[in-house]
Write a structure and sequence with these properties.
It holds the Pfam family XS. Keywords: Coiled coil. One of its GO terms (biological process) is regulatory ncRNA-mediated gene silencing. This is XS domain-containing protein. By secondary structure, the chain is an all-alpha fold. Among the domains are: 67 residues, no CATH class; 63 residues. The chain contains five helices and two strands, in the order ααββααα. α1 packs across α4. The longest helix is centred in the middle third of the chain and has 109 residues.
Length: 275
């Protein structure tokens, strides 16, 4: 009689069970071994091998018939402890492993989907950025065109104003020339010839003319000062009104552009936490 020792684990027990079943199928199990007329040899003189799972009594009997040799130490443990519980744990571990694998597959699939989505979004962002660059370049070109047009219009109006100023200066010079010319005529008037009465009358005429001219020039200068002052005040008021309207226009544009950016404000990205 001999003992075949298997691994002290659930796997070892399953292997022992498989071997035990094989002996049962071959009709060389315990029941066959216990028969009085069991076959001891096979045809050809080969010894017949019997086998079965050992019980406590089998182990005691084995040690009893092997006195003088080292006793085979053994420990009786429950089937539930050695087989059922480990197999259950193995099943749970396999299920957990399967779950982890499936989760890994799903995670990888989601990662691929997310990566694909990110690639599409990134491509869209690149296209949008290119479009924005194009739009900004066009807007800059338009802005430059508007500036050139405004400069051209400003130059046109400044040229008109300059022409008006030059024409007015020409009129002033002509006005001054006429004053000097008439004053020279009065000074060149012959007041020394003729009768005494005629000389007196001509002198009085020249004096009245010179007096009236001086007085008229004084009035002209006073009225001109008032006119220039009123003109400058109107220019200041006009520039103030223009600046005020320009500020209001810029504020209106700022509000409209801010509203446009708010309308097209990108959504906040939030990563999904679902498993």
């Amino acid at each position: 009689m001999s003992v075949l020792i298997f691994e002290s684990s659930a796997v070892g027990y399953i292997e022992a069970e498989h071997l035990d079943k094989r002996f049962v199928d071959q009709r060389t199990h315990r029941d066959n071994y216990m028969q009085k007329h069991r076959a001891l040899f096979l045809p050809g003189g080969i010894r017949q091998l019997y086998g079965f799972l050992a019980t406590k009594e089998d182990m005691e009997d084995f040690n009893k018939h092997h006195q003088g040799k080292s006793r085979l130490k053994y420990e009786m443990r429950s089937h539930n402890e050695m087989v059922v519980a480990p197999m259950k744990k193995m099943s749970e571990d396999n299920q957990q492993l399967t779950y982890v694998k499936n989760k890994g597959v799903k995670t990888e699939q989601r990662s691929k989907v997310v990566q694909g989505t990110l690639d599409v979004v990134a491509q869209k962002l690149r296209e949008t950025e290119e479009e924005n660059i194009f739009v900004r370049r066009k807007a800059k070109e338009k802005h430059s065109e508007y500036e050139e047009e405004m400069k051209s219009q400003e130059k046109f109006f400044l040229d008109q104003i300059e022409n008006i100023h030059k024409a007015l200066e020409d009129k002033e010079r002509e006005f001054e020339r006429l004053l000097q010319e008439e004053r020279a005529k009065a000074r060149q008037c012959d007041v020394d010839s003729g009768t005494t009465e005629n000389r007196r009358l001509r002198k009085e005429q020249v004096q009245r003319f010179m007096y009236c001219q001086v007085k008229d020039v004084q009035e002209f200068e006073a009225e001109a000062d008032q006119l220039i002052k009123a003109h400058e005040e109107k220019k200041v008021q006009l520039k103030k009104e223009y600046a005020t309207k320009e500020v209001e226009l810029e504020k209106e544009f700022d509000a409209a552009f801010t509203g446009l950016m708010e309308k097209h404000k990108p959504n906040t990205f939030q990563a999904s936490n679902s498993s």
